[in-house]
Amino acid sequence: MSKHGRVLVAMSGGIDSTVTAMLLHEQGYEVVGITMKTWDYANSGGNKKETGCCSLDSINDARQVAVDRGFHHFIVDIREEFGNYVIDNFVDEYMAGRTPNPCVLCNTHIKWEALLKRADSLDCEFIATGHYAQIRQENDRYYVTKSVDEQKDQSYVLWGLSQACLERSRFPIGHMKKPEVRQLAYDWGYTDLAKKGESYEICFVPDNDYRGFLKRQVAGLEEKVAGGSFVTTEGKTVGTHKGYPFYTVGQRKGLGIALGEPVYVTKIIPETNTVVLGKLEDLIRNGMTVGQLNSMKYAELPENMDLLTKIRYHDKGTMANLTNKGETVEVNFLANVKGVAPGQSAVFYEGDDVVGGGIIRRNVTA
Fold this sequence. Notes:
The protein is of the alpha/beta class and 366 residues long. It folds into 3 domains: 6-130 and 172-194, Rossmann fold; 222-278, SH3 type barrels, CATH 2.30.30.280; 283-365, Elongation Factor Tu (Ef-tu), domain 3 (Beta Barrel). The chain contains 9 helices and 17 strands. It has helices at 15-26, 56-69, 79-95, 102-121, 163-168, 178-187, 191-194, 210-217, 221-225, and strands at residues 6-10, 30-37, 72-77, 126-128, 133-138, 141-146, 169-170, 228-232, 237-241, 264-269, 274-278, 284-295, 305-310, 318-324, 329-338, 345-350, 353-365. The protein has a 6-stranded antiparallel barrel with strand order 12-15-14-13-16-17. Strands 3-2-1-4-7 form a 5-stranded parallel sheet, with helices on both faces. Strand 5 and strand 6 (141-146) form a beta hairpin. Helix 1 packs across helix 6 (178-187). It is globular and about 70 Å long.
């Protein structure tokens, strides 16, 4: 009988999940490793060698650690589960003129559900991942709080996890900084692993060319959307673009148009295939509506409460007042922010604690 119980560890083959598994093993847990095959990039028509969590090299790296440490390891194919939901949503959101965050959707609806399902079948009490975040419990509520490592903190992408998921989840490296994690890999003799670089790509778009991915997913997309208008915030047509799905709010580079001064995408109108351009100040917003809510720290998202609000992964956050409308939350920023993009996640913090979050539906012009 293990000291702390039986835990299913999601192992991508990277340093963070590998150290997670080894830490739990040393702490006395009965570890079972699982590597989930989420995507076969070759099937999408991409021209880059498959890398990251779905590559054969990564799967072999994860399996080797399990062999070395003497615990079981399984490979599970969840490509059908993943593709039907995450990728369809990714394409649909861009076609609707919004900017999706597939990692949030995957965590909430695919990875954790897949992990819990396999944990139950393998008699595992807990699941664990290599996320840089921590879990706290207070007044019968479980919630995510920021990692000790501010540069690596991943609490933003975990806002959608349910209480049932959080109760059984463990984040063993959330109290550590990345150099400490690398040092452990060195100390345990995994020099190559310790030298592995970071991966910031979407797993099914490893070349970071989301436009190329959309073209391969939607037959005849270029022909359908080519020749739309670039329009200024004053309504003046100033050129043609390649199609509205290929642009995002806040984009400045790669527009293919010169107006004598820097311009940014301020709005996307899919109904008319229009991309609105403006100056940096035209991106300023003082509010937004957020839906598809999940309340984490409290039973319901607070009413009339000032919380730090992040509108993208690397956003430092802005204080905002929340008005709970039931299915939506009206957010009024206490200082103007730039680049509020519908489709992205809004995450609300009380200090380091994730109060909850949702998906940005619309923004409000200052």
